Amino acid sequence: MPARHLPKLIAPSTRAFFQEARRVPNFPLVERLHGYVYGRWPYLYIGIGTGEHSLARIIAPLARLLGPLFSQRRGEAGEPIHFADTYHGKVVTLEAATQLVTVDREVTLPNLEQIIPYHLARDLILKNPDHIIALQCPCRSNRARPCLPLDVCLIVGEPFAAFVWEHHPDKARWISQDEAVEILRAEHERGHVSHAFFKEAMLDRFYAICNCCSCCCGAMQAQRNGTPMLTASGYVSQVDAGLCGGCGTCQKHCQFEAISLVDGKSYVDEARCMGCGVCVTHCPHKALSLRREAAKGEPLEIRVLLDQAGKGL
To answer: Which terminus of the chain has fewer CB atoms gathered within 10 Å of its CB, N or C?
Structure first.
């Protein structure tokens, strides 16, 4: 087939993805292809990654064989690049997540090292931020008995939203910013945690907000198993012992197993706490609140970041 006919066989969103990839400085071809595979077949990709797909038994030995080659990658300063540096999530409070899905202009905030403490994928770049897709969660979809509902992964901005919708119209739907806020609120009420996800293969930047539960989420399970894929919100939960009724509701809702009952009162293990705020809103006694904690990094709060950059919303 003549080369001039090839563009007709390539989906418009695929062309847009690769065109945008060419604008990313020093973005390697292998990662462009990696991003295409990840976005085109996310259920297979994540099913293999979490070990839930039958192909995982075949792929896992190959991954272990190639692992040492991957671990030899080095960043610009010679630092070792690990898996978590290429694909990671930032815990965000409900308020911070809401800000991310209600932006009314394009945003370019590169190299947020203090907020996203990984060697790669730490840019917050939003093009057409009101283009949002609700996608059936690949992590939940790969589980035998998943948490419901499924369509709680929010793909934000271009070229990602159009790419996902065009390739997965049966599992994705366009939503408004108001609908995105309602999904975030409903998931928070269910006790699930919002993560802003960044991935090297997705143009080295932010592309989605996932609303995660520890029973289904591959990233949360990887975190528990020693792969540091998640970074804290910048806050920790604190307990007012005078208000605490010792009911254990906060412990029940903590996805990070950071809360226990000690002498009839809730106790927060700050080393485990990721500062999502789920426990705060579920406490019937209003005994919990979030406290800024410098040791937990800087929050991903886009309004604050834009104000600091002189680009306030």
So the answer is: N
pTM over cut 0.85: yes
Which of 3.30.70.20, 3.40.190.290, 3.40.50.720, 1.10.10.10 is the CATH number of 235-295?
3.30.70.20
Q: What residues does each domain of the chain span?
A: 16-40+82-233, 235-295
Residues in CB range of 240: below 8 A, 6 or more apart:
287, 288, 289
CA quadruple 77, 232, 82, 41: dihedral sign: negative
Please state at what angle helix 29-40 crosses helix 12-22, rounded to 10 degrees. Answer: 150
126, HSE (Cβ side, Cα atoms, 13 Å): 22
Rounding to the nearest 10 degrees, give the CA dihedral for residues 166, 167, 172, 176. -30
DSSP 8-state assignment for residue 49: H
User: Does residue 100 sit in helix, strand or coil?
Assistant: helix
pLDDT in tens, 76-118: 666 778 889 999 999 999 999 999 999 999 999 999 999 999 9
Any residues with CB less than 8 A from the CB of 201 and at least 6 apart, and which? 31, 32, 34, 35, 38, 86, 87
Distance CA 144, CA 71 (A): 32
Beta bridge partners of 175: 132
pLDDT of residue 66: 52
Nearest by Cα to 210 from 72, 56, 42, 78 = 42
CB neighbours (10 Å) of residue 217? 26
Task: Judge if the upstream peptide bond of residue 149 is cis by omega within 30 degrees of 0.
Answer: yes
Residue with the two structure tokens 């996310």: 42
